Automatic annotation (TrEMBL):
UniProt-recorded name of the protein: D-isomer specific 2-hydroxyacid dehydrogenase NAD-binding domain-containing protein
Domain of life: Eukaryota
Organism of this sequence: Curvularia kusanoi
Alphabetical list of Pfam families matching this protein: 2-Hacid_dh_C
InterPro entries in alphabetical order: D-isomer_2-hydroxyacid_DH, D-isomer_DH_CS, D-isomer_DH_NAD-bd, NAD(P)-bd_dom_sf
Annotated CDD domains: GDH (cd05301)
Domain D-isomer specific 2-hydroxyacid dehydrogenase NAD-binding positions: 150-336
Amino acid sequence: MSVPKSATATLQYLDSTQANPAVNQSQPHHLHSSAHMSPPKVVITRNLGQGAQAFLQSQSTDLEVAQWQSDEPCPRAWLLQTVPGATGLLIMVSDLIDTELLSAAGPQLKTIATFSTGTDHIDLPALKARGIRLGYITDCLSDAVADLAVMLVLMAQRRGAEALARVSRGDWPQLPWHPGLMTGPQIRGKTVGFLGFGRIAQATAKRLLGFGIAKVVYVTSKPGVSVKEDYYGLSGDAEKVQVEVVSDLSRLASESDVVVVGCGLTPSTRHLVNAEFLSKMKKTAVLVNIARGPVVDTNALVEALDMGLIFGAGLDVIEGEPDIPADHPILKQPRWLWSLCRTF
């Protein structure tokens, strides 16, 4: 039912720095009085920035907005307390959407939008069973993540993090120059393998053409089946680089000089990069993960780096982030780097 433009809704905000979300008595701050007709209720789990907040304010006659105003993740208790009666829900990747929360929301919940590309924090079958539509981000970060992937490839190959650490420790004066000092493999003429070949992976491959790569191999969720979408015109670059879909993970691991992990996280892709996969990679190869942390078995990666089974690794994500203690084994590895870019 549409709400008359003249209606005055209740725009609600809860400042996490001033209220205890675990206590039922904590109340949102009311900016407007109630309307004669109840407007649709939307729950938002984070501050969205100045521009978006101004837009929300402009919609105060059409919506009842309950929003967690902090830049920190909203507590589960607050979300469960606030979501009943909501028609729409705008969430972050840190918010778990499961049957408990959907039941708390009630049958009038029709739409969920997630401020992320990945959807592994959402129970998709539960949404389908309830007829709830899901919106997610598809392309706004493709360029940013592809740029980051290229940085991780080059830094991992050329030992950038290791060099920076040695200089920071004051080791440089004790490192006499010689032709092999801090050298690593180059990207020109090499084969780059992609686990998953969607928009971001293709954007990464397109950028790497400028560095003179010779071949791209990739696997998808349907082994041996080529991707339908050519987002960046790679098919028109056949004279510059060979692009081939493969059905065998072992072949991709053994042929690639760089492996870029870009697939979604599902039960079948969890620890897809495991000890067996890493053992088949070249000793001069590097691994880059721009997907989700659990796609790579971190313990297996640490062991592979320890044993020199691969040359290095560049991680945009890691299992268990952000709860990575100072004594985590990966932090002791000289030939790895981490972008500290939170999952999106």
